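One record is set out below.
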Amino acid sequence: NSASTRGLFHEAGGSRRMEEQDAVFGRIFLRHVDRFTGNKFKKAERYFLHLKDTEAIRFQKVHPEGVHSYERLAIFVDNRASLIEHLEKNEIETHIHYNIPLHKMKQFEEYNSLVIPIAEQLCRNIVSLPIYANMPDEEIDFVCEKIKEFYGEKE
């Protein structure tokens, strides 16, 4: 399942029933959500620090009064497929989220003819980098090193 096809959503809907063990896990997780979110914030900050001068990459902006959970760490690039291929060759998994703008999805057929350039561009250019609460700093450093390598930059 390559990054170019994984996670591609074409239709909304589906069963969302929660099993008992998932509910138990969720209740336990909620007790620690602030710690996990705080850890992910620190991981995201490390990415920002390493990649802040890489002009080919843009990060999602967070409102100064807002809080981001960093469930995903999305970057915006113009050459997404080539970057993903480079990262995969280095055994770095990426994801494509939001690959189809809402107005182009089957369930919104009446809006398919609309042209919404910013939404369409974002869907073509977004890629999510690996991030999780206990991700070792060395792994983040490696991902950043490979991204900079792709763009011909040195550490």
